[in-house]
Amino acid sequence: MGCDVGISSEQTPETTLDWIDNGFTGGGGDDFYVGPSSSNPQNDIGGGGDNLNNIPPYGGGPVWITKYVQDPNPPGCYIPGGPISTIDTDPCPTTPIGHWETYQLNVPDISPKITDPCIEKNKIKTLLSTSFIKNKNDSLAVTTSLNEQGADIKLKNWLSPATGYMNTGISTSTSSIEWTPNFTWDATHGYSVGITHFHPGGSGPSPTDIYKMLLNLRNSNLMNDNSGGPGAALQYYKDNATLTVVTHDAKYVVTVKDWSGLYKYFSDYLIAHPYDPSPLYAMNVAFAQGGTTTTDAPAFELLKMFGPYINLYKATDADPTNFLPMGLTANTNDITTLNCNP
Amino acid sequence: MKKIIFLIITMVFIGVYAKAQDTVSNIVSITLPKKTEKISKSAYFDHLHRNYKNYNTGDEKVDGFFRKTYKIDNILIKFYDADRSYDPKKTLVKFQNQFLEMMKWGGITVNFSKIITVNNIQFLVYEHQIDDEMTINFISETKNNKCITGELKFKKADDEKAQQILDKLLKSMHYKER
Question: Cβ separation of A201 and B108 shorter than 8 Å?
């Protein structure tokens, strides 16, 4: 499906976009598309009247986007204080008058791709054995930092992954509970396909980590990169993005197997908790209250929340390169390794 | 008449047998306080939903954690025999570090977190608080790949009472197998 942009001026959009500020990094540019609604397009409160940088709908097809365009002053008006010609009879409007233009953008089909963890684990094992990534993870595993540390994993050329990775370093956060990645998608800074970071408390990935993976889909460079064909860059990211968490005892890797489902899960959660101090507050509170009933409570809670949408792999220090897919037991009482060889 | 007597004896027998089977834990013996009321999983969640705003929403999907559920006045209590065969060497300190990290992610106040020894059993005990809603969790050291875990959920007004109940419960615990 092509990526055609057509202008149908002053049409009433069939669907409009509703936005809420995710509050994650602040700023209007981080408003989060939460799906079609019947609300007025002027709900684009943070984008300066331009909501072109939204997340396209999943499944492909047309998406309506709206942009407020200022009209020129009407003919025959005069600017107060300015010279009045014999032709100008009415003052020009004191506030700009404009109109909403509606664009129809056809996005490629990016339907959920289900990835079998028993097949994907071999890909993960190979990826994590790559010397660049392995060196980063091995360094993080022995760090004595009390704060989070991490490194971006960026390809030099996503169309030719064999050309290797940008030489990103490990940076140390000033916080014990957050490390901020630097997502880029260009030839100069590299093409971010993953991050790896250290959790000093020994926990696996958090809901916030998963949320960051999803937010990357909104990067305009990624969305507008058609160098490999319409939507191919976005699809490449979705098929290859990894999130690694390193602790002193284990390494965890997350991939997303159902982006559409993950997106809906967060959207529903954010809509259901609009008045919390931050959108992820309620999610992290619920997550934290999982306690220590299970052997690996953080991983257990992660799968309870996101199990239908992600694959989670874990390699322990006892067998550090053997990344095994994790799942909940049949009675959902605990976490276990999936049996890939029945 | 004989049938009635037989029926009564049978019912008494079933009742006694059921009581004997309803052990709180297979790992440790526990003496429950006199006012303890055994409640079902649904009654547990009914009380939780009616009285609390903060809880793990995913827990309702989990069955095992809620087979040993009790109530003392308005204090909810649950016990769970946890299988640690997946990672039997994981220490209480590591559990503690993970728990504290998760609490930080949630911005949750931790009132205390300590490792104590009672009757030669090591326990990690911690209390967290969200608004006036309190939770105490405890977890024993791993022995033979098993450990006992538990939770008390209550309002701040019942904090002292909950601490006393916890103290009695922990002091009543003894390993069943030496």
Answer: no
